[in-house]
Structure formats: structure tokens, C-alpha cells
Amino acid sequence: MRRLPFKTVDVFTAEPFLGNPVAVVLDAQGLDAEQMQRIARWTNLSETTFVLPPTTPDADYRVRIFTPVSELPFAGHPTLGTAHALLEAGRITPRSAETGGLLLQECGVGLVRLSLETTPAGARWLSFELPDPKIRALGAEERADLERILATGTGSLAGACLIDVGPRWVVAPLGSAEAVLACSPDLAQLAVMDMKLDRTGVVIFGEHAPGKAARLEVRAFAPAHGSPEDPVCGSGNGCVGAWLRQAGRSPTDGTPLLVTQGAVVGRAGRIRLSLSEAAIRVGGQCVTCVTGTLDAIAP
């Protein structure tokens, strides 16, 4: 029987059990895709990652990312959680401070850049650079179907777009953070639509009132991929950043804006979005909740 080192990391939080967990198998050499999928189905988290040696000298490590039902070319919170687990285990070392504590992850979409920042108070924030987004406005019929499924009212999603960063999220602005929190979608119908149109799911967002610590509230729904509501979604938040940049709704000088997500499902995720013309960066803190081994893998 083979024993595999394993961690469960809570992402987008510094307090255990309030973020979005990802299971990380730190040494997946010898596992095939079927075994990886079986483990991901068993953990039953939104994603499980499997660390492998890189196939290019430019990368620090390679990762494969699985939901309970399929493999993904890229995902946000698994990217941060995997980097955290590897750093904590001493399996990787950031490149020099001159490059901002840079890491390079190899995954299905290619190389993803990560940076590490430690604040004067000792808090560690990891950020990833969103893969180049491809953006398309939804057609009238697709938008009307989504308005019906989200129960937001006719004409409420005029700005909705499909944004492809590997995961394919529909991003839709609502009128306020309160409207986001009150939304009650028909998840069964959403799953049917997403499977038909080859989409990952739907991300909605709205602005908090002035004076709040966070600027935006976000929710993400991916029932077709085994995650009815994603507690805190890295790629989805990155796509919100892409929407804001294209719409000219946020500064692009790299100043971080704070996003909150997860309140409806009992979480308290905190995400930092940094937008520039060159890149969209999604950052968060991470904390390990489980460290151990997987013992049920045949040699």
C-alpha cells in the first residue's frame, strides 16, 4: 500500500473553516487520471489537486485539478491552496524577492504566475495572475434565460458576459451587494443550461454601500460541476476583475480592492483584486486545516 502526503487547506481566509477548502496530494507521481478522479470524488470538495514534477524547466511544479466529476485546466483557489501547501511543506522555495517572491505553476492552461507577500504584521498573502480572459457579451436569448433562472427580473442582466480563463464563467452584475445576497437561483435549471452551453457556472456581484470595508460581494454557482454554490471562488473573482476592467468600472493602477464572498453558506472569504492593463491578480490568505497521508492507494 502506498502512502501519499496530503493536506487540506482553507483558502481566502486566515481563520480555519471560514474559507474554501482544497485537498492537496503533495506527491502524485504514479497516479493515473482515473485514480485522481476517484480520490477527488471521495474528498467531495469542490477541487482536489495533485502535484507532479514539471514538464518544463520554467515551472516550479505541475498540478492537475479535479472536481468530483471532471478535470479542470485551471482554478483559482486550488492554485493558491496548492502553493501554500507546498511552501509550508518546504517542497518549493519562492524565487528572489526582486521578482516579488515569484512562483510558476504549470497546469492545463500553461504557466500561471504567483507572487508571495508578507505584511509587516507577518500575514502572508498569495496571489495568482489570471490567465488571459476571453470575453463575450451574452446574446439576448441567453441573457433572458439566465434572468429567469436567477429570478432577477427582465432586463436586469444587461451587462452579463461569458468570460473564459480555462473555466468558463458567466459574470453578471446586480444592483447591490444586498441583491447578490438575496439571489435564489434555480440550481437544477442552471446545471442543465451550463452543461448545454459548456459553461463552468455563473458569478454574480454587486457593490457594498460606501463606508464598508469591502467594495464588492460575490457569489458563484457551478451545479453542473458538483458545486451548487462555491464558497469562495478564485477564478470567478478574477473574471469579475476582467469584467470591471473591460467596463472601466475600477482603477487599473494595481491598487487592491477587497471582495467578500461566502456569507450565504456560512463562510467569510476575503479576496484582494488588483487590476492593471497588463494583468489581473487575485490574492488571499490560506491556512492548513488537515495534514496527514492517504493510505488506501495500491502500489
Salient structural properties:
single chain, 299 residues, alpha+beta, Diaminopimelate Epimerase, Chain A, domain 1, 2 domains, 18-stranded mixed sheet
Give a short overview.
This protein is an alpha+beta fold. It has 6 helices and 18 strands.
Description of the structure:
This protein has 6 helices and 18 strands. With 299 residues, it is α+β, with helices and mostly antiparallel strands. It has 2 domains: 2-129 and 285-297, Diaminopimelate Epimerase, Chain A, domain 1 (Roll); 134-278, Diaminopimelate Epimerase, Chain A, domain 1, CATH 3.10.310.10. The protein has an 18-stranded mixed beta sheet that branches. Strand 12 and strand 13 (216-222) form a beta hairpin. The longest helix has 14 residues, at 234-247. The protein is globular. The mean pLDDT is 94.
Compute the number of strand runs. Answer: 18
Strand fraction: 35-45%
Q: CATH homologous superfamily of the largest domain, by name?
A: Diaminopimelate Epimerase, Chain A, domain 1
User: Helix coverage percent of residues?
Assistant: 10-25%
Distance between the termini: 6 Å
Structural class: alpha+beta
CATH first level of the largest domain: Alpha Beta
The CATH topology label of the largest domain is Diaminopimelate Epimerase, Chain A, domain 1
Name of the CATH architecture of the largest domain: Roll
Taking pLDDT < 50 over at least 5 consecutive residues as the criterion, the unreliable ranges are none
How would a crystallographer describe the biggest sheet?
18 strands, mixed
Spatial shape: globular
